[in-house]
Amino acid sequence: VPVKTIEWRDNSVRMIDQRLLPARETIRIYKDYKGVADAIRTMVIRGAPAIGVAAAMGVALGIRGYSGTRAQSRFALVAKALKSTRPTAVNLAWGVDRMGRVLEANLSLDAAHLFRVMRDEAIAICREDIEANRAMGKFGAELLSASNTILTHCNAGALATAGYGTALGVVRAAKEAGKKVAVFADETRPFLQGSRLTAWELHKDKIPVTIIADNMAATVLRSGRIDCVIVGTDRTAANGDVANKIGTYPLAVMARRHNVPFYVAAPLSSIDLNCPSGDQIPIEERSGLELTEFRGKQVAPKGIATFNPAFDVTPNDLVTAIITERGVAYPPYTESLKALKDSARPPK
Amino acid sequence: VPVKTIEWRDNSVRMIDQRLLPARETIRIYKDYKGVADAIRTMVIRGAPAIGVAAAMGVALGIRGYSGTRAQSRFALVAKALKSTRPTAVNLAWGVDRMGRVLEANLSLDAAHLFRVMRDEAIAICREDIEANRAMGKFGAELLSASNTILTHCNAGALATAGYGTALGVVRAAKEAGKKVAVFADETRPFLQGSRLTAWELHKDKIPVTIIADNMAATVLRSGRIDCVIVGTDRTAANGDVANKIGTYPLAVMARRHNVPFYVAAPLSSIDLNCPSGDQIPIEERSGLELTEFRGKQVAPKGIATFNPAFDVTPNDLVTAIITERGVAYPPYTESLKALKDSARPPK
Asked: Burial code of A111-140, b = ≥16 C-beta within 10 A, e = fewer?
């Protein structure tokens, strides 16, 4: 049974609450854009492609009942609220801006018709995300041999996307192609996307998965047991610098040290050609409570200082290849990523 | 108020239960060696020097009431039980073996006298550990400049020793010498020695401390904010390979990548000249429950596979210097460590 990360139903947006997994499978239902914005900010839903879809659906909810110039100013307000929830993933802005272009092309419609067009566009973004992941999975699976142990970080799976996953999409596609796959999953502090989410969805799919703490990845890489590392990305710059969940950068360094290929599964929506290099990617800092508390229980001394960056940037020279839904990009990325983006049909 | 990690009082061994810190300060009292062995195994007490002291005190409790050849066979049993609790830290065997030599030298005493001699030896080991840490601190502090931000991993502090600490002893000595110090502490999964213990004892001593997740250390090192890394060790081989808490090895790799000195604070009791290199150091694997549960609450899916090595080995070429209570060792360590060990007076 595939996981439904996010779904449009009965003019509302449904999400599985990822903060409670795997202990509880709770569905949240949002009827307005503010609820969706809160869900993104508080990580009910997370993962760059998934929050891109959520933001698009949030826009559709937000402009409901508006048309013409009133819809335009309403969109400006809704877009700002949604884009401000999390700064690093470029998919968020990508999803919102695509909805904005559809709005501009349909300003002559009455409110009811405009809402239907916007709703259908959000649903299309959701469907296309899954299709992109399946295409990416096929390209990625070709990089793998007949039997593979893959190390991954965070959750770049069905739960991070509309479905199927990016990095875990490659794992799934390899399995579907008859290859043998097993996964080591970094638990990924502080939110534990690895031990809670990656482990949960792979376990459901009967793909063997072994949990380690983030600081154990170096030992596993040194042991020679890992054939490749595959991770997702929240934003990849034009030069191939990769922003992804905190801990990806040291993982890439250790992979290089132990001669293990380091692959990034990146839908074209996460590649930002307007961003020349990783230095220009804004890195979100989240609340220190993620480090000092665990499910409301105090772990560290009260009043202690914290630093909690949610992402880091892996320099392009540590990235063996970038897997997209249009093919695999190799260095120099400034050329290969641009060529892949150019080859993609413009969004309708 | 200094932390009392372990104390001999009224013919029993008292320890602060480190599993409950910082939420609760609970003292455990052990009257027999089996209790002490359990305390080491379950990490009521941890840290290589601290468990060396605990094991010595455990031997004293264990041989109480015995003398002559009965004391010898009793010692064999007690020593085996204590040594088998945790395999990586060499201090455990060091403490037990030192007690064994005292036993052999006092076989003519009656049981009451023998117990007093053994008890006094265990108390001496405890006192000497603090003295060694203070000496180590002074040597280490000389390596630091007037103002320092130090990154550390796990807890090599007062709680890991009889008192004062090894890596944190260097921090304390630098402060006592009038230098400015601030600390970044890796939280250190899965047991959270950094956010629970290092943060707690430095906060008590009013030394500024900032908690980060282990996977954030690379970002902090890249930022240029860190002047040096200082860690402890559970066993350092004759060639300077350093076994320490899991995550130390990737930390050393990242420190080298960003040109940050990487220091190891190692009492001579933790340097094992009988172990030629890190390959020969046994690495403890602990229960996967440390990864799948948090204070008894399920975090990961039930039945998931885990890999939980408690230590890793940092190769000697990544170690800038090793700080001992007899001075600072530089490469080549095979020579410098042997010279320092030879210079130490043999245990009485």
From this structure: eeebbeebbebbbebbebbbebbbbbbbbb
Closest Cβ–Cβ partner in A195, A216, A312 for B218:
A312
d(CA A250, CA B219): 9
The single residue listed with the structure tokens 């499978």 is A25
* Chain B residues in contact with A308 (beta carbon < 8 A): 212-213, 216
Cβ contact (<8 Å) for B250 and A309? no
- What is the amino acid identity at position B191? F
DSSP-assigned letters across all residues of A207-246: --EEEE-GGGHHHHHHTT--SEEEE--SEEETT--EEEET
Q: How far is CA B45 from CA B35, B132, B158, B160, B283, in A?
A: 12, 19, 12, 8, 18
User: Pairing state of beta strands A321-324 and A327-329?
Assistant: antiparallel
User: Is B307 close to A208, i.e. CB distance below 8 A?
Assistant: no
The residue to which tokens 């023998």 are assigned: B114
Are A235 and A299 in contact, with CB atoms under 8 Å apart?
Answer: no
Q: Indicate the Cα dihedral angle A129, A131, A133, A137, nearest 10°.
A: 180
CB pair distance less than 8 Å for A209 and B254: no
- State pTM to two decimals: 0.97
Nearest chain B residue to A220 by CA distance is B307
Closest residue to A291, CB basis, from B187, B249, B298: B187
Q: Which residue has the tokens 């380690």?
A: A212
Chain A contact set for B253 (CB, 8 A): 218, 250, 253-254, 257
Q: Which residues pair with B126 in a beta bridge?
A: none
Which two structure tokens, joined as six digits, stand for B215?
């996977």
Q: Measuring CA to CA, which residue among B236, B246, B238 is closest to residue B290?
A: B246
Mean per-residue pLDDT, B276-301: 94
Instruction: Scan residues 11-30 of B and list those with Cβ closer than 8 Å to A.
Output: 22-23
| Cα A22 to Cα B74: distance, rounded to the nearest angstrom | 49
Alpha-carbon radius of gyration of chain B: 20
- Averaged pLDDT of chain A: 96
Distance from the A282 Cα atom to the nearest Cα atom in chain B, whole angstroms: 14
Q: Please give the Cα distance from A22 to A43 (Å, whole number).
A: 15
Number of H helices, E strands in chain A: 11, 17
- Give the Cα separation of B125 and B153 in Å (integer): 25
pLDDT of residue B295: 80
pLDDT, tens only, A183-225: 999 999 999 999 999 999 999 999 999 999 999 999 999 999 9
